Amino acid sequence: MPTNVKTDVQGALNAVPHRVTNPELIPAERYYDEEFFRLEQERFWPHVWQMACRLEEIPQIGDYVEYTILDKSVIVVRTRDGVKAFHNACRHRGVRLVNGPGTCGKQGFVCPFHGWRWNSEGENTFVFGREIFSEELLDRAEIDLAPCRVELWGGCAFINFDDNAAPLLDCLGPVAQRLNARHIDKLKMDWWYATVLPTNWKLAMEAFMEGYHVMQTHPQLHHLAPGSAYGPDAEGKMPTPGGTSREVINTSVDFMARLSSGMAGMVHETEVAVLEKLRDMDAPEDPMEAMMAFYARAQAEITKDGLERGAPMFDIPKVNQEHPFADVEFMFPHYFLLPSFAAMSSYRIRPLTAETCLFEIWSLVLRPEGEDYDTPTSPIVLPYDSDQFPEIPRQDYSNLPRQQLGLHASNFKHMRLSRDQEGMISNYQRLIDGYLAGLDRETLEKAQPIVNSGYNAPIHDIGF
Ligand code: FES
Ligand SMILES: [Fe+2]
User: Fold this and answer.
1) Which ligand 1 atom is the nearest neighbour of the CA of 95?
2) What's the whole-number mean pLDDT along residues 139-154?
3) Report field, pTM of the whole predicted structure over 0.85
4) Phi and psi dihedrals of 125, rounded to 5?
5) What is the mean pLDDT of residues 210-239?
6) Which residue of 86, 87, 91, 93 sits with most ligand 1 atoms within 8 Å of its CB, as the best mutation to test the pocket?
7) Ligand 2 geometric centre to CA of 188 (Å)
C-alpha cells in the first residue's frame, strides 16, 4: 500500500470487515461471510456500472430485457429515442412489470395486478378509474416509470443505480480504446450459455484472471503452448519439445484449434479454417522465427478472409501493434472479454447468494454483414458440470465448488497471491474495499482503469 494514504481514508478502510491489509493475501471470509456479502449489496453494487445486456438482445423498438442484480431489477428497452432503462416496479403498488425479456408492442408495459400501463418510453398511459385516487398521487412525474442511468458501449447497455457516478467511459479507462480498435461494438453472438455455480461470485471471476492455472487445469493447452513461463513440471519436463520449424507451426495450429474447440470465441472456427491452410506455409528454418512468422501470417490471413467474407473486420496486425491487448480484458466489476484474433469469448458473473453465482459465457464473432443467423434471446442454462459446456470452462468450473468448500477449512485464513501474475485479483478486491469503506468517488473512479489492466497483471498501486 502507498505510504501517503490520508488518515481518514485509512480509518475508513480499517472499518471494513475482512479487508485486504496485505495486497498479497486475500482473507477467506470475503468469499462466504454473510455480513461481507450484505455490505457488497449495500455499498458496492448500487454504485458501479454493470453490463446489463447485449444490444443484440433488443434489436427492435419495444424490445426489452430484464437485468437483475441481487434484489434489484431493471428494464432495459429500445425506444424510438434510443435505449432507456427503468426500475422494474409498478408505480401503484410495486409489482415487477416484466419478468425476463420480451417485446412491448402497442400495449406497452401492463401491470398484472390492477392493469396500469406505460409506453416503451416509460410514460404512464393508463390508470383504471383515475378519479378514485387523490389527484396529487397521480402526478405525471410520480407515476411515469422511474428512470435508471444507462450508457452504451461495446455493443452493450450498462446501467448504474448511482446518479452521481462518473460516465461509463471514464470508469472503464484505456481498455475501452483497446477494444474499440477491435470493433467490439460489431461483435455478434454465436452462442450464449449460463450456469449457476456453488461459489461466491468473486471466486468465479478469479478463475479467469491469471494464466498460472493453465498447466494443471488445462493440460491439453499447456502441452501445446509455446514454452512455459513457469519452468519444468514436477517431473522436470518442459511442456513442448522444441522440434523443427515445421513441427512448431503444426503445434501452433493444433494449439489454436484446441483453444477453439475448448472455448469457441477465443478462436472461432472460421479462424481455425484459415489457420489450417498455413500448415505448409514457407517458414524460416529457425523454429522460434518460424513461430513468429506463423502468427504474423495468421493475423494477416484472418484479416483478409474476414474482409473477403464481408465481415466488419479490423486490420489485426496493425491493431495488435498499436493497441496491445490482454488475453483476458476485465471491465470492473463483472464483465470480461477475451480477444485472440478477431472473435472473442465473453463472461459476466453475478452474485446470487454469498456462496452461489450466475456465470454467463458468450462466443462472439464479427459476422459478415447480412449473414442469416439466429440471435439467442436468452442463454442456454446448463448444470455447471454439463458436458455440453466447452472443455475449457468445464475444466475451470470443476475446481470452483471444491475451492469454495476448501475456503471454509478452519486453518485457512487467506489466499496467497503471486505478486507478479495474480495481481489482478488483489487489485479489484482492494477496489471493492474502497467502495465498502465509502471512499470518495474520485478516488474510486481513478482506480478503476488501473484495475482494468487485464490478465496476469501484477499488483498495482490503485491509489489507496
Ligand atoms: S400494483 Fe401495479 S397496477 Fe396495482
Ligand atoms: Fe482456465
Assistant:
1) 1
2) 96
3) yes
4) -120, -10
5) 84
6) 93
7) 23
